[in-house]
Amino acid sequence: MPEPASPEPDPGPATRTGGRGRLLTGAVWVALLLGLWLWGREITEGHGSSVTPTAGDVAAAGRPLADPLPPARAPLPPAPPRSLTIKALGVDAPVEARGLDPAGAVDPPPYAEAGTVGWYRRGPQPGAPGAAVLVGHVDTDDAPAVFYDLGSLKPGDTLGVGRADGTTAEFTVEDVSVFTKERFDPAKAYGPRDGKRAELRLITCGGDFDRARRSYSANVVVSAYLTGATGPKGPRTPAALVRR
């Protein structure tokens, strides 16, 4: 696959000032951008290194599996995401497409929409081949945000992405990792682990909050992969499973 061209900034980025939670700010945004570049290189490296987080409930990081994970389902045709449901966290949120700001960083939903999830629209669509990226705030000045409890997910938990074609792509959590700025590895955090699968990355802030810099020291990265799909009228005809 040819190396992707440099992404161009989108016009009209949202202005972000103040706020306790700052999603992937500073150096971590730079690392995310590098990760986006790596999508076109068919990276298949293993899981990222994790550290003990201190912001939010991220006890699931490094938690061993109790049961085997289900096999992957063959990817779906492309369709933009419209909603994200995570029953284990009580999340039922709209998803909106986001681009890049003039600094070259993914532009998350504004803090006035802290319950909305952002999808990086120049990357894969959830359910299609590749690793799609969804980002969300962990908190605001005075309240938890959509991904506040993201780190409490554990391998085997499920989530659903409602898509514009009326299907719901069903994903199973594979692991939960926490990457510090110093140990961030974009290849392991964002690169697809299996080029034949449809994968998903859910990302928010974690680690310690630096009040002087008004940013977090790390990021929580939840990795999941497609294991099922339903249509507007119920389960779709089963598709062939991904062969390894």
Q: Which tags fit this structure?
A:
8-stranded mixed barrel, single chain
Tertiary shape: globular
Topology as a string of helices (H) and strands (E): HEEEEEEHEEE
Helix content: under 10%
Biggest sheet strand line-up: 1-2-3-4-7-8-6-5
Number of helices: 2
Largest sheet: 8 strands, mixed, barrel
The helix-and-strand class reads: mainly beta
CATH architecture: Beta Barrel
Whole-number mean pLDDT: 74
**The CATH topology, please?**
Sortase, Chain: A
Low-confidence stretches: 1-31, 33-63
Total individual domains? 1
Distance between the termini: 20 Å
CATH class: Mainly Beta
The CATH homologous superfamily? Sortase
Radius of gyration: 17 Å
Q: Compute the number of strand runs.
A: 9
The percentage of residues in β strands lies in 25-35%
Walkthrough of the structure:
Residues 1-12, 67-79 have a biased composition (Pro residues). This protein is mainly beta and 244 residues long. It has one domain: Sortase, Chain: A. The chain is built from 2 helices and 9 strands, in the order αββββββαβββ.
